[in-house]
Amino acid sequence: MKLAKGHHVSSNRKKHPLTWKFGVLRSKKFRSWVLKIGLRVVVAVALFVIIAPVWPAIRFYLWDKLGIDQSVPVTRVVQVDLKQDNGRGLININKDGGAEKSPELRDNYLEIPKIGVRMPIATGPDESALDGGHAWLRPGSVNPGQTGNLILTGHRFAYLSGGKTFYHLDKLTEGDEILVHWNSQVYRYVVKRSFVVSPEHTKIEAPSATSKLTLYTCTPLWTAKNRLVVVAEPT
Q1: Helix (H/G/I), strand (E/B), else coil: 146
Q2: Closest alpha carbon to 113 in 76, 153, 67
Q3: Given pLDDT bands bounded at 50, 70 and 90, which one contains residue 95?
Q4: CATH no., domain 106-234
Q5: Which residues contact 226 (CB under 8 A, 6 or more apart)?
Q6: Which letter does DSSP use for residue 30 in this model?
Q7: Which helix (H) or strand (E) element contains residue 93?
Q8: SS3 category, 153
Q9: pLDDT score of 13 more than 70
Q10: What whole-number distance in Å separates Cα of residue 223 and Cα of residue 220?
Q11: pLDDT tens digit sequence for 28-67
């Protein structure tokens, strides 16, 4: 039937949901919102990339100027009454003499109080052991507690490492304390000397007839040109 002029057939058909969604995605308002979010993400990432490499130095400088002690508490492991410690047999003694349980003392990690380092110690055949902010117990090194050259290396800086690096290793001086936590024991060392060598100078990893700790990392900062070496002896 032919409809009179000016009349039309009404339709109850609804638009498909996808049609509405694609329409929103194509809208100027949505594209503008996506652009703003994208720009903010790019700016945030750029700031992180720029600031992260120098932030440890800035923090160390500011804390030094403000007189804030950024060192981590020195800890040691002692044997206690198993009944008193609910069967764990380990207790954490801090500088002030207070005692508190410390589950992490069952882990193997390196502690350098002066520069705020607490890095898990990892073993492995290659540099992947350094991933995640670990100190790498080098192949050929003796284990803590054994006579010889205990060799640990770590990244000088790494993004997403959580500060677990040797960034401030150059701040260590003679007499500074280094603690190696290993198999529920703590081995204490004091720094004797530090020096810089080339990457080809492998003698720093040579076996030793006496007990010593060798730490090394890349230097200068953000390069792998040389190696900064710190040698410490047990006390």
Answers
A1: coil
A2: 76
A3: very low
A4: 2.40.260.10
A5: 196, 197, 198, 199, 218, 219, 220
A6: H
A7: strand 91-93
A8: strand
A9: no
A10: 6
A11: 777 787 888 888 888 777 766 666 666 666 666 666 556 5
